[in-house]
Amino acid sequence: MEMPRDTFQDVSDDALLVLYANGDASAARALTLRLTPKVYGHAFRVLGDRAEAEDVAQEALIRLWKQATDWRQGEAKVTTWLYRVVANLCTDRLRKGRGVALDAIPEPEDDAESPAEAMQQKSRQAALQEALMELPDRQRQAVVLRHIEGMSNPEIAQIMDIGVEAVESLTARGKRALAKILAGRKDELGYSDD
């Protein structure tokens, strides 16, 4: 199935939200197509459960649409606001203590890789997801936002409602913990020292 093309590719997220608030349904579709993969991906990496991540992404976008008429351009980026909503929704779900069966989470396949490479990559992704799930919630959120989503520390601080120094501390501790968790699996994951 071919994904619809973003006909608003040169229009900012803020402008699309304002267009939607003024009744332009096509702007809402364009913004949904643009933001859904981002918020779903973040929610999945934090929660480790596809169904939960879908629910969080849907709820976050619903909250964005409700916020549209009151949106004040220039105060915050739409993505920063949305990532903060996703982070809070994920935290709420994690506090409820739903268990996650990590072995039940299939990883997407990449046709460009050989079967052996695909298997190794799948093992690495599963190992990373398992290791991420061992981190405390706040460390996991900071590490995912910084090193997987590629966000800056000030953006993460805004999303998590903490200071930049706290973000730096959380990501540093999270990286050290991940390295320690994964250290014994280097050979198994194909990272043997040469």
TrEMBL record:
Superkingdom of the organism of origin: Bacteria
Annotated keywords: DNA-binding, Sigma factor, Transcription, Transcription regulation
Family, as annotated: Belongs to the sigma-70 factor family. ECF subfamily.
Start and end residues of each RNA polymerase sigma factor 70 region 4 type domain: 127-178
Source species: Cognatishimia activa
GO molecular function terms listed in the Swiss-Prot or TrEMBL record: DNA binding; sigma factor activity
Spans through the membrane: none
Gene3D superfamilies membership: 1.10.1740.10, Winged helix-like DNA-binding domain superfamily/Winged helix DNA-binding domain (1.10.10.10)
Domain RNA polymerase sigma-70 region residue range list: 34-98
One example of a Gene Ontology biological process annotation: DNA-templated transcription initiation
Entry protein name: RNA polymerase sigma factor
Pfam families in alphabetical order: Sigma70_r2, Sigma70_r4_2
